[in-house]
Amino acid sequence: MRETVLQAQRLSKSYGSFRALDNVDLTVYKGDICGLIGRNGAGKTTIMKIITGLAEKSGGEFELFQRPGEALGDEKRRIGCLIENPAFFGGLTARQNLQYYAIQKGIADRRQIDRALELVNLSDVGNKKFRKFSLGMKQRLGIALALMDHPDFVILDEPINGLDPIGIRELRDTFQRLNAEEEITFLISSHILSELYMTANRFLILDRGRVLKELTKEELDLACMRCLAVHAGDLKQAAVILEQNGISDYKVIDGKELRVYDEAIRPERLNRLLMDGGVDVSAVFETGISLEDYFTSLVDGREQ
Amino acid sequence: MAAVIGILAFAVAVLLFLLLFHRSEMKHISRQLGEIMDRDTNELVHTVGAGGADRELINAVNDVLEKMRREGIAYRKKRHDLEMMITNISHDLRTPLTSAMGYVGLLREREISREEQARELVIVEQRLLRLEELINSFFEFSKSITEDHKPEMEPLNLTALLEEAIAHYYDDYCERGRRILFEKDGTKCMVSSNRNMLMRVFENLIGNGLKHGEGSLFVDLSSSDGIRIRFSNAAGEENMDVTHLFDEFYTTDISRSRGNTGLGLAIARQFTQLLGGRISAQSRDGMFTVTVELPGPSAESR
Amino acid sequence: MLNMIKADFYRAVRSKAIYIAVILMLVMLALDLYTVEPGNLGIHLSMNIGPQTEMSSELSQMDYEQLSALSMKDYRKLRLKMTGYSLDRDILACNINLYYVFIFVAAVAVAADFSGSCAKNTLSSAISRKKYFLSKFVFAMLVCAILHFLNTYVMYFGNRLFNGGNLASDLGSVTRITLLQLPPVLALAGILTGLAFLLKRMAVFNAVGIPFVMIVQVILNFLSLALKLPEEVMHYELQTMIARLSMDPSLSYTLRSYAVCGGIVLLFGAAGWFSFRRAEIR
Q1: C52 found inside a domain
Q2: Which domain holds residue C104?
Q3: N or C: which end of chain B has fewer CB within 10 A?
């Protein structure tokens, strides 16, 4: 059994008569980058607030680091998080803000502040006060704080808000690198599916407080059926050629289209193989339903 | 008088407080270390609020912890890679073996003509030769990584050596409609090195170009600014991760399906380094280039 | 907990609020020293708070018309000529004014954390709610105590410097008074911190905090009249306590007023804690 960092069962939260969370089950294994997908108001932030102790649950239970309930005392330091908007002191600079929290947490080595700023590309904002930061810079500082104290578990609420595409990619690379090199587990929420798809390896789809689906990236790929579609004259011959070349992961659809699911095959090579083998290929293209369509179908399915 | 006593008392109180505080910090450190050791965590030791020497101790301890963790992670990664490789190796060895066994079975059971028998025996031989080649590869590689002593060096004509290596593969290239083009600046380039190892490096690189590249292979020897040999060809696969190319456990899916364990390049690197040289790879604009740099004849062999 | 307090000091020193507080304090002192008379920002309670030190002065012989005709400078000159008057002790008696300085402290330490949502950073990954709460309390009390002592000694030496020695007492008795007044000062800090945890938002906290003591005084006054309570009860109201403790109080009074202070701290502490304990941090 893989070690779990977070395990929540039947988690519920109500604000008066409004049910923000309704019996949510959620498991995050050590080493995962877990993506929480949902529209605004689906309950992503609420889950995060509950597990970090900022809000109280109305029902259910959860375990952090295999201990029940909110992280106690020193264990809290193992978590780094950015929840809702990044909040810092307007009159202080980036470094001073992080310094404040570094002192609070008892971080003995001030170089950790520099390291955190480097990770998010904020090393050279110098003496600019926080209140003068752009949205993207504020966001980065929030992420820097979450990453600063060598956490084991990092919880990020829509971290790419306000960042430009290059910044988003750099951040994605940083997260994946930290995940691989320091075995940090991530829980990231977003409503931008395409970005989360490239970052995470497990997904939890949330809508109006309920879990619609929990799946791994492989399962998501299968569900979205990303594949290479081939339109050709003689599909049988095409199949034989594929077999001869060691490609067995394919299906013939409706006698008209052949779909290759093997991710390593590139369309150019497939085309060449088939042409060399004497098959007239009329089209080779990548296809499958988009993430957005898949997500929409899940949500609509529930609404029906 | 009272004032003096008051101030003294105050000073004593302060000193006592500092002492107790220091003790508390020390105990806190031990406790934290105990907890950190118990868990699999990235946490470092934190301070309760002291400064100065206590802090220095904490930083020193944390440095040790970080080093430990880095090594642990590197170890786990290497072990994972090793497990992957062992799986690959056993799969690779089994393939020609199973195939040969299949044919042997056929030969035994069926009534077949002598010509067919001969044909199938040739196939069996081919498979076994392939098996032998693979086993030799692994053996050679394991030897190269365990060997510590310096290779024997002798003065060699690099140009002639390269031409010999190219000649070995010339026919193979021509069969596929491809060529090898050799550019050199001068007819003779002397170097102090080991013949067998250098030959192996060149053959591995040229063979690699054959298996994974497309189109013609360009070999370029220049000795003006240090001895540099470049092997370039059109890349057969996009997005090659050049940082891991020489990693002994790296193989792309494509190369593995054609029966290559990726050791060829790893051996090339190992040998080049043992000979005191450097090897690097670039992938740019669809061209894949491996560059071998060797120390000149005047350079001391390390 | 010590880390929290260190961090809050780090922040306070870099914020404008604390400096405004200190400047406010110095301005009040300057006014007091110049007019040779303690000012009072609060309600001037009409009751007799005890005998003043024996004073003789030309001023006491003037009638109202003459007094209002005096310019500030002349008024000051006349007051400087008083005998038997300890200006510093008189100023110390009005230390309730420090309440308005302490508001800044609680604002910076607690309300700012909540208003700017910064509390969530700390509570989610550094410290438990209990420790957070206690640290803020200790910090606020510590800073208020420091300001209290600062107030006394700046005033004392300022008085000796600018007003000459005859209106000053000795250092020992001034120190003694300052120490005696410490518990009510801490009680003020406790009230403000408790209020800050209760109200959380900066704007609300300011709106309620600033007139708070005055409102309580009015209510107590009203209650004591309406319920015909003995005059003694009013002696344990904060402004009165601070004043009386500066005038050689009896041991029993001292102990009882300290008990009241403790009760106040517990009351407001509990109010702040129970409202904070399970609240959602925004």
Answers
A1: no
A2: 2-39+68-277
A3: N
